């Protein structure tokens, strides 16, 4: 359930969702997914504001969600307790420079908590323009678009525990969210859950190919493969058991599953997946230095 910014003397509860005013600077696909998730979690639509440069996109968001569309980014910041920064990386500096200018005239612009989902942009990028603003950097992933995202976040030095609660409230509306203490670990998160959906799509495609190879129709093979991956993931999350323990539970002596596992191990399956996570994480590190 949605956990809004708590009242000083009251623990967070779903009934307090009306206390959380959330804005979005940028109204792209990820913002749309998060808006939908927040509304499903019970946040009143009158607590949401969005700024978006595309007129067609503004109309779409207003028609679809009935959200308040603001003309400018600083209006969103003024109206919100929490602002999700969801712009393209190449325009972030321009957006922040404008917010800094607006904050000089109206300090309230810089008083919101910013949740940045801008790819590759570090906390230092925000400190340059808005040094006193509380900022959380989040690495989400694309399954957030269907409410099954996996996000990880880090807070800057001026954030509080209340801010952590707010980040988890907002990001938790479209999946699971974890916190790390060191921003450098977001490179590892990028390699694992950020890039991970692509690895899983390859696995699903390969499993489907195997089913077709053995005679199954393609639609049936793909549906079975995708559902198997989703179900196995749910088993890990809901049972709390180690994946190896769950694997052993379906691997009978001399049976079909151990034959398949042996084929995977012969192809260095685990080592290849580990290498993929490492390669993506190192590439994230390289991009961060550019």
Write the layout of secondary structure elements.
Layout: E1 22-25, H1 29-40, E2 48-51, H2 55-65, E3 68-70, H3 73-79, E4 82-85, H4 92-105, E5 113-116, H5 123-129, E6 135-139, E7 149-155, H6 161-171, E8 175-179, H7 185-194, H8 196-213, H9 218-239, H10 243-249, H11 256-266, H12 269-289
Parallel strand pairs: 1-2, 1-4, 2-3, 4-5, 5-6, 7-8
Antiparallel strand pairs: 6-7
Describe what you observe in this structure:
By secondary structure, this protein is an alpha/beta fold. 52% of the residues lie in helices and 12% in strands. Strands 3-2-1-4-5-6-7-8 form an eight-stranded mixed β-sheet, sandwiched between helices. Strand 2 (48-51), helix 2 and strand 3 (68-70) form a beta-alpha-beta unit. Helix 8 crosses helix 9 (218-239). The relative contact order is 0.09.
Annotation keywords:
290 residues; alpha/beta; Rossmann fold; ProC C-terminal domain-like fold; 2 domains; 8-stranded mixed β-sheet; 12 helices; 8 strands; 12% strand; disordered N terminus
